[in-house]
Amino acid sequence: MDFSISPQHEIFRRTVAEFVEKEVTPRVSEMEERREIPREFYARMGELGFFGLRYPEEYGGAGADSMMFAIFLEEMARGYISLAAAAMMQCLMGTNFIYRFGTEAQRSRLLVPALRGEKIGTIAMTEPGAGSDLGAITTRAVREGDSYIIDGTKSWITSATRADFFTVAAKTNPDPKAGFKGIDMFLVEKGTPGLSVGKKIAKAGAVASETSELTFNEVRVPAENLFGGKEGFGFAALREMLNEIRVMTGALGLGLARAARDESITYAQQRMAFGKKIGDFQAIQHKVADMEIEIELSRLAVQYGAWLIDQKQPCNKEAAIAKLFATEAGVHAADEATRIFGAYGMAMEMTPQRLFRDGRFLLYGGGTSEILRNIIAKEIGI
Amino acid sequence: MNVVVLIKRVPDTETRIQIKDGKVVTDGISWIISPYDEYAVEEALRLIEKYTGKVTLLCLGPVDAKETIRKGLALGADDAIHLNDPAFEGGDASTTAVVLAAALKKMQYDLVLAGKQAVDEDNAQVAIRVAELLDLPHVNSVIKLDLSDDKKSARCLREVDGDRDIAESSLPAIITAQQGLNEPRYPSLKGIMGAKKKPITDWKASDLGLDPGTIGASGAKLEVVRVDPPPARPPGKLIPGDAATAAKELVRLLHEEAKVV
Fold this sequence. Notes:
- The structure holds two protein chains of two kinds.
- Helix content of chain A is 49%, strand content 15%.
- By secondary structure, chain A is an alpha+beta fold.
- Chain A folds into three domains: 7-115, Orthogonal Bundle (Butyryl-Coa Dehydrogenase, subunit A, domain 1), CATH 1.10.540.10; 121-231, Butyryl-CoA Dehydrogenase, subunit A, domain 2 (Beta Barrel); 235-379, Butyryl-CoA Dehydrogenase, subunit A, domain 3 (Up-down Bundle), CATH 1.20.140.
- In chain A, strand 8 and strand 9 form a beta hairpin.
- The longest helix of chain A is centred in the middle third of the chain and has 35 residues, at 234-268.
- Chain A is globular.
- By secondary structure, chain B is α/β, with parallel strands linked by helices.
- Helix content of chain B is 29%, strand content 26%.
- Chain B has helices spanning 35-51, 65-75, 93-105, 126-134, 189-195, 216-219, 243-256, and strands at residues 2-7, 9-11, 19-20, 23-24, 31-33, 54-60, 79-83, 111-115, 138-147, 153-160, 163-170, 174-177, 200-203.
- A nine-stranded mixed beta sheet of chain B has the order 11-10-9-12-8-1-6-7-13, sandwiched between helices. Chain B has a two-stranded antiparallel ribbon with strand order 2-5. A two-stranded antiparallel ribbon of chain B has the order 3-4.
- In chain B, helix 2 packs across helix 5 and helix 3 crosses helix 4.
- Classes of the chains: A alpha+beta, B alpha/beta.
- At the A-B interface, helix 1 of A face helix 2 and helix 5 of B.
């Protein structure tokens, strides 16, 4: 049992923290207002090697472990959830299938520039009628000669308006009994006839990480764009990635909780009420102590999940716990921060209201807390 | 060309320094490369990117200074010498310079860069002492550094009281960095991962042929008797009453108590 963090991980944590402090934090209000992430952030983060973090050097990556990835996301989320979420998409969901199952040509055309921040990749799974119940998606992919024809509508697609390539979940087996197992994943590039990006979804949190609808109207892609090369393969690959998504979303929750705690401490040490600093009251101290407890336990859960992923051990239960506990910790800490700030907790010029809104965003992707409890219960045989 | 950069491990500038029994408590401090030294590392990396060659870090510090050295290697330096011997500890600017100079005598270099001072003790002495011991030219607090085409001399821009001066020096020389020389890069993740494979060589007093009596605590001319935090700032004074009365009282206090008007 060894809980120490290597010097490499520590140096990297400081690097990301410094990037956030110097280059992200000063621009948060601008991004909140514009409701988008300036494109130059992609080039900059690519240049710093963030996007290639978990990929091998031959594609321009760094070959780092999951702990490094979790540290990256935690520090990013501590600064700004919108940018952290867009980065996670680019590092993991948006590029993972093309790395694992793409052809060499697809990798050099799309993956390599994506890791440099020159191209943007995203994943399209959710539909208006299917989120956590992914087996209920209705987007279809039908083989026709050397092609697949894709039809359907996707929703909540991160960065869809600017994405260069999409990893799309579609049913190759429409039998309702097949459910999740009837899903396969396809590569669809921007500009493919029949692919259209719909309106942006106005949302309360993570506002600069834009999400849109996406429509497939007889979109024809070459058969080689079926990831894994054969039908009935996609769901297993997706399930494997789901654990990583969950642990890493937990890392986002952990970063958000830290931001809420730090804001709370600073404010409680300044704000006076009833003749003292509010931080001198036990009611406030206990709120902050609870945040700290949940932060420390979230960190253990996230790091354990990351370690299990690196050990290639099964971790359905642990990943679900990490995501659930750490994102709820983020939501809880942000809620408490808005209370510690009193009415200023709602003031748009202060940070807690943003943490409060952004925290909610973490509750859905990768499975809601309710779905995660189902998984945990099932894993322990109930 | 070979550039050697002198780096020092110092407490993170955001550390809340605690003092106990007349000494700084070092437990729990997080350590960084002294910020002025970071400018020196960055400048060395830029020179090597332009002229090709090698950047070597030279650091005197305790065993765990290795982590700080790794940060410098992560930024892109090629290798490092760690002057790592309990005999070096407890020294002052003078003994530190003696050890660094002895190490530099064993090394090949065209240029030595360092920060103008370390941000822990703010001595601003070490680099200039090393230059003196090695009989090398020294230019301090440089904000722009250009080498001649033949790389035999350096042109250094410095800020002096509201104006600027230009110093030219033959090389090798010891040049120290002032804020403004450049904007240091972040270590890239690839750099961080690669740093653990880069060589750090340990040199002890015996490797440098130094007599332990002349270095570290035994050679130091400066004795730190005790360290005290600066006195707490006294609370401000609030003058009550309406504006007219308060202003009168303020003038009286400025005149009679603070004696500034």
